[in-house]
Amino acid sequence: MRRKNIYLSALSLLLAWQSQAQTNPEFKGKVGKTLSESTESWPQTAKAPKGAPNVIWILLDDVGYGASSSFGGLVNTPTIDSLANNGLRYTNFHTTAICAPTRASLLTGRNQHAAHMGGFAHQILSAGFPGWDGRIPSSTGTVAEVLKENGYNTFAVGKYGLTPDEENNSAGPYDHWPSAKGFEHFYGFLGSQTDQYKPDLAEDNAKITPDGRHLNELITDKALFYLQRQQAAAPDKPFFLYYAPGATHAPHQVSKEWSDLYKGKFDEGWDIYRERVFANQKKLGVIPQNAVLPERNPNIKAWNTLSADEKKLYTRFMEVYAGYFTYTDHEIKRLVDYLKASKQLENTVIVLILGDNGASKEGTLNGDVDRQLFAKPYTEAENIRYNLAKIDDIGLPAGTEANYPLGWAQAANTPFKYWKQDAHSEGGTHNPLIVFYPNGIKEKGGIRNQYSHVSDILPTTLDITGIKAPSEIKGIKQEPITGSSLYESFDNAKAISKHTTQYYYIFGSIGMYKDGWKAAYAFKPSITNGLLNDFSVADKTNNTWQLYNLNEDFNERIDLAKKYPQKLEELKALFDQQAVKYNIYPLINWDDVSNRILKAYSQSQQQTETAPKK
């Protein structure tokens, strides 16, 4: 009886094996009734194309076009300068105007709403609609998923920002953690911002406790650990590293060793800063020679009209921001130095995006010392006195959650008007891009002016590596990639821009670009609070659509809406088409979000008041 049972079990196993082989089209062998009648076939380990380079994407946060010395700014970034001087500067590159949509578009190569990230992954800033639910679907696979399936090791460190709040804990589910989106290892934070010395830290699929060191140091250490371990185990296998510091997003925090490097460097103020940076940008060739600097936004005071206390306070905010940025550059240098020492730099592509949007306007007019959702009911004078009392703590580990005032945001965003969140404006969406690739870029220090978008980075990377975009990932059909490759421009400065049409939409603010023309609508919230203060609209009358010819007026100084009404209507109709195609509808604006926040805040207050006292 026992032999019979063994025989039946073996026969059952063979039949199951045969059935599996018949239903598994990936099996290339033959299953017979006996081993001698069968042909074995093993799954093939994915291998990258021969000679495929390592790939590093570096995405900084809230930087501004006119901050880094690489693009004419007055903040020293020697490592970034070196990458730019030995690679290419792209001067006409665009993001979505705010962090999570930019990151979703970058990682998937699709428009933000096609990747379901019209707003954020935070529940209060998302909505239950296909373009807005804050959950990147499996049908829009990430660059990590594609490269992993093609023989790359994949790592991510720093800010992820694409995990729904309800999944942001050690119990999961982990469906929208980096580990579920193709990254074999992750070390960083999952939300939109975090304290740099007490980060909400996670590694792989668990929350961990930080050790008190700066987040920049922690993520760089971990990136080097991943790369060193990978090289020791598989030196011929290429890697993909997504390196995304929290810098220079608020809170601006860095040791005095770095911030004191800028003592007195900004005493001339933000107006002189803008003029000096604008001149530098023309010398570098990163803006047109006939460009004109826009007037200072009327919400911002002229520097020479400020009191001594205001100048002292505002200067310190900028010194801390600059030290924070230069320190970030130093940590990037550690990464580059490792690649040099390990003889991997020549065959490594480094794509460096200086900001996921424009400079941040969230520091308010007077600067923010301890950021809160709802602004304290201070008058301007009281706010300045409050901040001055804490001036020595700005940027320190046990100090404040600082963000610089609006005047410095405009300075850091030279030569543009407006800021982060302003999807209608180049000031919200126009960011520096640097591509460094010794084995693949012949021209060193070249300038490229092709119109491009953050969704272009994935298809560009696939062209560089020789990998085709998959039609399926793990059996799931993939949505079309909407970005266009920049690869041809590496060797040809005059390559035609392939990205000819692009919409922008962030909570009511609209931009519609087509072949050099752009329609723009600046949404002015009627509801404001500490998070959503509106500084984007100089004219406080009713908003109207505007029209710009970016080929002749790259920083949007001359509104042509009345001169070319038909062109404006064409672009408005195009936006409607794009809205239907990419799930932008329903249009959700800042008033809608503010109402949600106010309602949630009111409910939490009521719960606090009615809770039984211990």
From TrEMBL:
| Keywords of this entry | Calcium, Hydrolase, Metal-binding, Signal
**SUPFAM superfamilies attached to this UniProt entry:** Alkaline phosphatase-like
Do the record's keywords include Metal-binding? yes
Q: Where is the signal peptide?
A: 1-21
Does this entry carry the keyword Cell membrane? no
Q: Name one Pfam family in it.
A: Sulfatase
Q: Which residues form the Sulfatase N-terminal domain?
A: 53-467
Q: GO molecular function of the protein, one example? A: metal ion binding
- InterPro entries from the xrefs? Alkaline_phosphatase_core_sf, Sulfatase, Sulfatase_CS, Sulfatase_N
Write down the PANTHER family for this protein, in alphabetical order: ARYLSULFATASE FAMILY MEMBER (PTHR42693), BLL2667 PROTEIN (PTHR42693:SF43)
Regarding protein family, the annotation reads: Belongs to the sulfatase family.
- Which protein, by its recorded name, is this? Sulfatase
